[in-house]
Design goal:
0% strand
């Protein structure tokens, strides 16, 4: 188990990339540039899942415009939650997202 100061350094070094993970297509940045940082990688994977869901919802919304509007707000709320927790330096398991994100291997 890493020491507390090592864990704090990891979070500090990955915080900016963790925040970027929840900003749409920028979710790819922590996955490319901070693979060695568990904090940024954890948030990056969750951001990727949210981004893929957003793309799917936007595509489905073209076919059925008004049914998927609540999904957009829900995904936006999840992104905001992820950003807030990233800025606080906390790992977070977002509902519906974390289980899928944990299955992603890079």
């Amino acid at each position: 188990m890493p020491s507390r100061s090592t864990e704090e350094e990891t979070i500090l070094q990955g915080k900016m990339f963790a925040v970027l993970a929840y900003l749409s297509a920028l979710c790819i940045l922590p996955l490319l540039f901070r693979k060695d940082n568990p904090f940024a990688l954890s948030h990056g994977k969750q951001g990727l899942v949210i981004f893929i869901a957003e793309v799917a919802v936007f595509i489905l919304q073209i076919a059925i415009p008004f049914i998927f509007k609540p999904a957009i707000f829900f995904l936006g709320a999840l992104s905001l939650w992820g950003i807030i927790e990233s800025l606080r330096g906390r790992y977070v398991k977002l509902p519906f997202v974390a289980d899928i994100a944990e299955k992603i291997s890079l």
